Amino acid sequence: MKLKLTPRLCAIVAVAIWAASAFAQQKSPGAGPVIVLETVKGTIEFETYPEEAPKTVANIVDLVKKGFYNGQRFHRDDPGFLIQVGDPVSRDMSRMDWWGRQGSGKPIGVSEITKKRKNVLGAVGMAHSGDPKLADSHFYILKRAAPENDGKYAVFGKVITGMDVVNKIKKGDVLKRAYVKDAAAKS
Predict the structure, then answer these.
(1) What are the residue ranges spanned by the domains of the chain?
(2) Per-residue pLDDT tens over the stretch 151-179
(3) Within 10 Å of residue 65's Cβ, how many Cβ atoms?
(4) Could you tell me if 108 and 56 are in contact, meaning their C-beta atoms sit under 8 angstroms apart?
(5) Which CATH superfamily is domain 28-186 in?
(6) What pTM does this model have?
């Protein structure tokens, strides 16, 4: 049996494709600004959760708007677990042994760990070296669910597009540019 492509069938297919695309990029209820990470491996977009982590989201958005992450390298890649970025020293390949030790120099000062946001596949959370109140600019993106991290790290976002890119990122890959999607659309 051969299927005939009528104008009506083409319109239905076009609407279905549009709806699927819109659904895939639709933000969750209560989600805030979307942050876009343009990497050498492709683009990642994640929504933020200012209702649960207002100071964390404000800090990350501010750093993104200042261009803090532009040109940094992903300084951590744990295969099958997570990737991490946020150290300005990572721009210097000759200092690779020091990657992961520096930040913006301005800790958030509060621990916005919530029971509502879990460390699920694609979760974006604040990394820290022992005290969540000292989290600064390092954030991670999970390649798998990590319930063992629940209650230890502030989850402030979740990937909405680009998980395939997350899974391709390796230590040393460049984050070419980060920006707030809503702000970029206005400028």
Answers:
(1) 28-186
(2) 999 999 999 999 999 999 999 999 999 99
(3) 14
(4) yes
(5) Cyclophilin-like (2.40.100.10)
(6) 0.83
